[in-house]
Amino acid sequence: MVSSSPSQVTLPTNTSALRLIARLDIKGANLIKGIHLEGLRVVGDPQIYAAKYYSEGADEIIYMDTVASLYGRNNLVDVVSRATEHVFVPITVGGGIRSVEDARTLLRAGADKVAINTAAIKEPKLVRQLS
Q1: C-alpha atoms less than 13 angstroms from C-alpha of 76 in its C-beta half-sphere
Q2: Which residues, in sequence order, are CB contacts of 106 under 8 Å at separation 6+?
Q3: Which pLDDT tens digit goes with each residue over 2-29?
Q4: Which CATH class is domain 18-130?
């Protein structure tokens, strides 16, 4: 909620209105973190971090394969399948989804939602096909 003064923002006191969504950037089998927009550092196993964020109250987990389109791959099926054994919040997956079948495969593996980017630009009708 914004007060009458444009320079003053009031945060809601009811924290249940807030949703915490943890985004995990993946490269290969690793969780990565960008360093000052200049490079990537491996920080660990995405499963461990997803379980940690879930146990700490995250409302949703996003797995994003940051280089899937660059390398023409889609390797998050196993990551999603394993995550659903220990994480019981919605899971969104993005990166490497180039077709309806790619999306179906991830949804069957346990993803609740898929996010598309490069494929939607290269093949705009994919958005309609997926909706």
Answers
A1: 37
A2: 74, 76, 77, 80, 93, 97, 114
A3: 444 455 656 566 666 789 999 999 988 8
A4: alpha beta
